Amino acid sequence: MEFSKLVGTRYSCKQYSERVPDEATIQSILEMARLAPTAKNLQEQHIYVARSAKSLKPSML
Questions:
Q1: How far apart are the C-alpha atoms of 30 and 35, rounded to whole Å?
Q2: Of 2, 11, 17, 22, which shows the fewest CB atoms inside 10 Å?
Q3: SS in 3 state form for 6-43?
Q4: Around Cβ 29, how many Cβ atoms within 10 Å?
């Protein structure tokens, strides 16, 4: 796929599913994120796991 076509068809999704992944799936995703490269390991990572509907609601600042 050409980059221009890829950019034109991408989208962002901010709607969450009601499905709850099992603990093994969550741990697998977290491990992959931990191992992912981050620009010579100079970029800090922040990973959040939301486990309740309340934690998914945007906070009022």
A1: 9
A2: 11
A3: HHHHCCCCCCCCCCCCCHHHHHHHHHHHHHCCCCCCCC
A4: 13
